[in-house]
Amino acid sequence: MMNLKKMLIAVMVIFLAAPVVYARSENSSADNLSAQAASWKQKRKEKMQKIFSQLNLTEEQKNKLKENKTKHREQRKGGFEQIKSYKEALKQELLKPDLDMKRIQEIQGQSKAAQAQMADDRLDSILEVRTILTPEQFSKFMTLMEHHRKERASSENEQRSDDTEAEK
Length: 168
Prior knowledge:
The chain is an all-alpha fold. Among the domains are: 57-133, Four Helix Bundle (Hemerythrin (Met), subunit A); 134-168. It is 93% helix and 0% strand. The chain has four helices and no strands. It has helices at residues 2-55, 59-95, 101-132, 135-167. It is extended, with a radius of gyration of 25 Å. The protein starts with a helix and ends with a helix. The model has no long low-confidence stretch (mean pLDDT 81).
């Protein structure tokens, strides 16, 4: 009987301690992600400055590009938030005991429309950049951006493989 009590107390301690340990690892993970985000943001800023310097931009072009970026960043942010809300609404509909297929299809249609709008906004942003830059600058810009995308994809693949190896 005494051993049973000790075992029961030990199990309770483990179950009560587990959330505390998990919460601590979650906080340190959040701090690490915040530091990674700041580092990533700084690297992105440096790469864009490097690209801008390679394009030999005028101050007027720099200002117009900055305005374009700010304007379209806000649009993207709104679009991502909208799509996120549609995903959450779809999730809630799918969790209901009785499926409302009409509502599910409506939400899916709204999500697709928001994604299409984001694609249109992205194209509009690129077209605006094209009007700001000279044809030579734009051609070089597209080449540099393609190179930048390939580097980023390669870096992300390396990170994924590192994460996979760490999980093993």
